[in-house]
Amino acid sequence: MTGMFVKLALVATAAQGMQMQSHARGNPIRKVVTMLQKIEAKVKEEGEKEAELHEKAMCECKGGIAEYTQSISDGGAKTEQLAASLESGAGALSQLKTDLANHKADREAAKDALAEALGMREKEAAAYGAVKAEAEANMAAVGKAVAAIEKNAAASFLQSDSAQVLRDLANSNQAMMAESRTEVLAFLSNTDESTGSEIVGILKQLGDEMKADLKEATAAEEKAIANYDGLTGDKNAEVAELTKAIEDKITRVGETGVAIADMKNDAKDTADKLVEDKKFLVDLKAECEKKEKTWDAVKKERQAELLALADTIKMLNDDDALELFKKTLPSAASSFLQVTVTASAQKARALAVLHAAMKAGKPTRHMDLIALVLHGKTADMTKVIAMIDEMIAVMGTEQNDDDEKKAYCNKELDSAEDKVKGFMLQIKDADAAVKDAKETIATLEGEIVALTGGLLMLDRSVTEATEQRKKENAAFKVVKAGNAAAGKLIGMAKDRLSEFYGLQVTATAFLQVRRATAYKSAEAGGVIGMMDALAAELEKETAVASAEESDAQADYEKYIADSKTMRADNSAILEDKTAAKADAEGALQGHQDVMEGAFGKLKGSNDQLKAIHKDCDWLLANYDARKEARADEVDALGKAKAVLSGADLVQE
Questions:
Q1: Domain boundary among 298, 316, 334
Q2: Mean pLDDT of 622-650
Q3: CA-to-CA distance for 515 and 493, rounded, in angstroms?
Q4: pLDDT value for 353
Q5: Which residues contact 143 (CB under 8 A, 6 or more apart)?
Q6: Does 341 reside within a domain?
Q7: Which of 279, 299, 316 is at the close of a domain?
Q8: Which band of pLDDT confidence, cut at 50, 70 and 90, is reported for residue 355?
Q9: How many helices (H) and strands (E) does the chain have?
Q10: Is the pLDDT of residue 387 over 80?
């Protein structure tokens, strides 16, 4: 629009020249006015379209500025929140690790207490078994003695094993009164002169005391068992609770660690995005301000152009002006025509050059305006040449602007498209990572279930083996005690027979001699031999049982040690798998967050790419055509200038 007032003045001057046409063709000033009115309408139409485009651009600017301002505000708030969360998370992680160490120490202490209680319980049970076996043997001997005395079969009782058991009891029972002990020992030695009722009374009292002692020992054993069961129940519950707390703390330590790592990544991403948003907001504001300033200048220049057109139309279309042109146009002198013949020829040749260029390509406002000026009969060639120079300079400036805008658009489009491709690749990688993390979690969950089930089965097997070992040990103790008692009785019986049949028979009744001789010759050697064989068999059985007990105990201890090692190894593996699962779950959440963030960034990049396309697509699509048309126009104007300057153009 630069220099438009001068151009319009030249148009007005050219319009005056048209009045030199004949009156048969009408007043030529009307054509000039009509042409000016068309130019005015076209300028208004272009102004309305540009105003609409500018309004849309400003709307997009306001929306973009508001969006990025809000994004920057949200990013700042999120940065502060993440900093506070990181500090809180670090404190929570430290506390969780401390709690985990305390729980593990407490669980080991509870397990040690269980082991100690088990050892004490086994010792107490063994002591009670020995007391019970001895008490039952003693009570059985007392009962047999009482029954024998009441049946007047004391002599046969004295020949039995129970008599020796009773004798040992009388000798070893410190609580028994001396008088009662003497009577019992005398009875057992077959020298007692007491009545049977006195011995029976003493023995029954002794049996009642042993029953009371056994009952008291049994009550104490039952109480000890109840206390042990209560202690083991409490400690097992404590171990289970601590194990659960340890597993929970391990899980929470892993989750908290992953959460802290995610928050650090999120804080970095937020900070990076905040920097990008601030930079883009500054660029956007500068671009919008530039567009606003450009629009103000264009609008001001268009208003001036419309004002000039309106003033020109008003001047040329006034009744007085038309009357004046009617009077002045026909009176041109022939001398003036002779003077301007050469100039007219030059203008005609210049118009021919312009028309040829306009037919070959798209008409432009620059060549239109020069052609319009050249149609004027009194146009000043110097001013027309100056107009051509000015227009060529303007087109050079416009071409430079297009070149710079094209370079800017290509650069911004490449950058935006690279960002879009990068975010799409990031989304693809994150999606693959999410799938891998889910597969890892599924695999770890299956392994954790298998390990947990294996530990439960191992604990059940250990419990069953312990119960079986207790039963086998108790059975061995019963066998050992029984064999010992039986061997002792056999020895006592053997000693008694040897004592009786080994006496020298002197001054006895014939019956006694005969009986002794008969026993010695017929039975004594065989009975004693049988007793020796039986005692040997008992010793052999006891030795075999002891060997089997030793082997069973060794196998049990080895099994317990192996089970303990296996449980420790599997527990460690389970903790590792649980931690790995927590890490995989944290990684899954991190990949999902990365994917979500990439989607958000992809949307922003797509929006930016759309804005760049909206600003650049028309120019890039029409750049070559505009450049070619502008070059053709510059060439045509240059040729017209050469013609007007007096040069002869070679016809192609």
A1: 316
A2: 72
A3: 19
A4: 61
A5: 207
A6: no
A7: 316
A8: low
A9: 13, 0
A10: no
